[in-house]
# Entry
Amino acid sequence: MRTLVLSLVAAFAVGGIALAAPDPTSSPEAVPPRPPTTGAVVHVKNFAFGPANVTILAGQTVQFIEDDDLPHTVTAADKSYDSGNLNKGDKWEHTYATAGTYAYFCAFHPYMKGTVVVK
Ligand SMILES: [Cu+2]
# Structure
């Protein structure tokens, strides 16, 4: 007795793929987040941060520029951030999102201290 094999072909009806053009009047504006602005620049020179105390606004960035021949770091007093070794000519930035007073120091020379006040 022969077995009749039936091939079942499932047909998927794909119909009516309508690519609706987005309505520019109804879609929200795609506004990219604003990049943080530089609120202060601190030079690392002669084993000191200068100026040692800066004041910025929340969301702004402090840029640190290493001018010494020896490496320094910018290390948060609470260790929440650390630049790692900065060598002469290096620039490093940190964004301070929240108001407060943030002390930092150099991990190699703990007497090198600075403060960022964020309003
Ligand atoms: Cu140092």
